[in-house]
Specification:
With 489 residues, the protein is an alpha+beta fold. The chain folds into two domains: 126 residues, Beta Barrel (OB fold (Dihydrolipoamide Acetyltransferase, E2P)), CATH 2.40.50; 260 residues, BirA Bifunctional Protein, domain 2. Helix content is 34%, strand content 25%. The chain has 16 helices and 18 strands. The strands form four sheets. The chain has an eight-stranded mixed β-sheet, with helices on both faces. Helix 7 crosses helix 8. The longest helix has 24 residues. The model has no long low-confidence stretch (mean pLDDT 93). The structure holds one RNA strand of 75 nucleotides.
Length: 489
Amino acid sequence: MDERDIRTAKVQELRESGSEPYPPRLPTPRTHQIAAAIAEFDALAAEKTSVTLVGRIVLFRDMGKVIFLTVEDGSGRLQFYLRRDDIGEGFALARKLDLGDFISGTGYFFTTRTGEKTLHLTAYALLSKSLRGLPAKHEGLRDVELRHRKRYLDLIANRDEVMPVFIARARILAALRRFLDKHGYIEVETPILQPLYGGATAAPFTTHHNAADRDMYLRIAPELYLKRLLVGGLERVYELGRVFRNEGVDRSHNPEFTMLEYYEAYADYLSMMTFTETMIAAVAEQVTGGMVITYQGITLDLTPPWKRITLHDLIAQATGIDYDQYPDKESLLAAIRARGIAVDPARGRGRLIDQLKDYAFEARDPELLKPLFLYDYPLDLSPLAKQKPGTPGMVERFQAHLAGMQLVTAFSELNDPLDQRARFEDQARQRAAGDAEAQVLDEDYIEALEVGMPPAGGVGIGVDRLVMALTDQPNIREVILFPTMRELH
RNA sequence: GCGCGCGUAGCUCAGUGGUAGAGCACACGACUUUUAAUCGCGGGGUCGCGGGUUCGAAUCCCGCCGCGCGCACCA
């Protein structure tokens, strides 16, 4: 008989003796959360006030005629003390309690001779029987795969490290909503299940709608729907929700992740830059208590204004290449190769520029870890962004980088339906040439633009990465409760 | 997708060619202020999966699966 068999047998024995191991409610109402009771300990102990606390048994010390056990609830942990002389017949059953069981305990507070605040029980009750033991009390659960596959065990065993991260995550989401609401934005919900996917350059997850007998897609971004709402007359909208991209997993990517997108009519990318740094700094302050954070040992000051540099100047500083002097892919490629920088040449000019940006970040200049706005991007990488006047081939777009992670992308939204159609057609050519991630033409979206969309700025934030930055976590899987895992065989 | 590393008891880990181990957990016993309780005693393993080399494989080789790290890819 293994542990689980033994505990299952205990369930049976309890039922046969007329005791329900999974009762529907507490036999005695809970009077306090543990942390609240500890806060009032002196008064409660002085009056020997009867309190009822509940929780999971995390340590169990059976000394024959007395038992000490440590019980943990959502707020904290406390030692319970049971004496055979107090409990009577129930004491023998108490000795059969197991680590992991949920119990309630009624009694009064006292302090042991070693100074530990303790609840001296006059009665207890089993609330829920655990059939499987908890991870080792000292070593806990270190195996990263197990921690993520069985997050409930991770939360139990590594509570002090893991719980605060997800509490902070919840606070970050709430603070983002609060900030946007305060600034007149309304939160909307647009389709996750879409007949066409768009708004980003990524491969989708495909599914099938049986009733309509047609393929549908999980959204890769909410962008095109949010901008339809600008057409409809909503001036400030946002959506905070899950998006799905059929791509690999690494330290900063999970196939499903949380995106915040917000759009503001009559704004442009420059005003959205200011709004965004203000929002992120405010969220940091509300969640961490200040605008200066530490990420993986590096101090980062989020106080606005953040450094702003054009993509052109960043690349010029890092590589000495002034890409404005190389208006076509071939001449730029030659200049890159002349400096011995390795790039994938099977891409357009915009991709080359993008790779130069990556090269600049690879130098690991500590300055580039600080909050940074990079702006003015190549047009061919940004089919939904408005062209920058007087600068052919460039669009009004920015990205925010923090701690080396791309956190934000944003632009002045393209609202010229004729230009938009041409951009989609260009994407279609790239798709025909083998780029599976090129964006697909959305006729209905073009039609909406033809009705008329006000000039607007729009921003997308990778919320998981923001949570990583604000909780000092090195891996996106540490801020997603149930990260995507392969099937076990 | 490529490279490197890891996979041994429920958990944390040792074991690098010769009969599978430790601590915790678990079972049984002792103990009326313990606290990572202690003490005694005991059970528990397809060594990720499959194949190969060898008299003999957890250990060496090949393939597969899973995980991690790096690279590539990725608004």
